[in-house]
Every structure is written in C-alpha cells, then in structure tokens.
Amino acid sequence: MYKTKTKKTIMLIMLTVLAFAALFATDVTNASANRVHHKRTHKVYKKKKAKKRHVAKKAKHKKKARKAKKTSYKKPVAKKANKTSYKKPAAKKTARKVVKKVTRKKARKTSFAKLYSSAARKLGHPYVYGAVGPYSFDCSGFTRYIYRHGAHKNLARTAQMQYNTNKHVSRKHIKKGDLVFFGYSRNAIYHVGMYIGHDRMIDAQSRGVITEKIHEPWWPVAGYARVA
Questions:
Q1: What is the pLDDT of residues 207-218, one digit of tens each?
Q2: Which residue, 175, 228, 213, 196, is CA-closest to 116?
Q3: Is 54 among the catalytic positions?
Q4: What is the CATH number of the domain that holds 185?
Q5: From 37-46, 142-151, 215-224, the region with the lowest mean pLDDT
Q6: Is 172 a domain residue?
Q7: What is the percentage of the chain residues whose pLDDT exceeds 90?
Q8: pLDDT per residue as tens digits for the range 78-123
Q9: Structural domains counted in the chain
Q10: Cα 142 from Cα 136, distance rounded (Å)
Q11: Is 199 an active-site residue?
C-alpha cells in the first residue's frame, strides 16, 4: 500500500511539472510572437511616418515653387507703369487735334465772312438771265461770283452743274456758306442760293440780289451741297 501511494505522488508531481513546463513554453512562444508582431507594427508605423514626412516635404516644396512663380510673375507690373507713362504723348495728340479743330473752325468762319462780305456788297443789284456780274446776275452767276471773289474757287456755270460737281450734305449738317438748290428733282434744278444761317439765304432772283427764307411754299428744296 505504501508503494502504491508513493507512485501516485510521484506521478502527480511529474504531471504538475509537465503542466508548468507546458505553460512556460506557451508563455515564451506568446512573448516571442508578441515581440515579432510589435517589431513588425513598429516598422510599418515608421514607414508610414516616413511617407507622411515625404509627402509633407513635397507639399512644402510645391508651395514654395508656386510662391516663387507668383513673385516672379509679378515682375511685368513694371510694364503697366510704362504703358501709363506712354499715355502722356496722347495728351499732346489730343491737344494738337483740339488746336486743329479750332483752326479749322476759325478758317471756316473767316472763309464764310469773306463769302458773305463779297455777297452783301451786291445786295440790290438787278437780276439778268445769263449775267455773271459784277453789276447784274442770275442765280448761278451770283454764287459763282461769290466763291470766285470770296474763296478763290471756281464753280460750274449752271445751278444743275453746281449741284452735280459739289459734295452733297443733309439738312441736319448744313453750314453757313453751303449752297441750297431748288427744283422738281435732283435732275431738274433751276435755282441756287447761299445759306447764311437761321433758315435764310442770299441769292439772285427776279427781284434782284436779296436775302430771304429758304423754305417757302412756292419753290421746293431739292438738296444742299458744300464746296470743297
């Protein structure tokens, strides 16, 4: 009986030792596996961090490059200043244009003044068909005389020819010194006078050289012309 008890105790001891050895082995393997897993995860974490740093560096580099491009692109702003400075001569051109316009207006005024003075001297002179002056006139002979002595320009002899050979203008754009023509049509003109403003003209008609209204019911206005 005693022997069997000792055998049982020895067997129990052996089983407990084997159990502890198995537990220790499992702990060791688990610990080694955990270490390996930790190393792997640490490596992956390091790689991810390295990638993030690399991406951040690239982004910073791109931002710097964009800023550098923007700053370098702003340099042509100096050209705009050159453009504004270049506009200065335009003022001179406009001043010249204004001077030219003023001189042209003065020339027109002086030319009309000469025309009107040469025409006004003949007020009251008689009308004679086919006469060209200096003491008697018909309508086209009178306008021809005015432009020859007041502007040193030669007009055609008849009213129809004077209408055909000069620049036509509308009633809105008529100016002092322009010619006013009367007739049944543009191809049937029979009278001409010189516009002196305020819807009046100076002309030679059956009552002689007079000033009168342009638009009257007894004769139709066929057109207007400017002597070039």
A1: 999 999 999 988
A2: 196
A3: no
A4: 3.90.1720.10
A5: 37-46
A6: yes
A7: 49
A8: 555 555 555 666 656 565 665 556 555 555 555 899 999 999 999 9
A9: 1
A10: 8
A11: no
Query: Has residue 110 been placed in a domain?
Result: no
- Asked whether residue 57 is domain-assigned, the answer is no
Residue of 125, 139, 149, 178 with catalytic role: 139
Residue 53's Cβ-count burial label (10 Å; 0-12, 13-18, 19+) is exposed
In a domain, 147, yes or no: yes
What is the pLDDT at residue 228?
84
Q: What is the pLDDT of residues 9-27, one digit of tens each?
A: 787 888 887 777 777 676 6
User: Is 191 a residue of the active site?
Assistant: yes
Whole domain around residue 202: which residue ranges?
123-226
First to last CA, the chain: 159
* 159 touches 79 (CB < 8 A): no
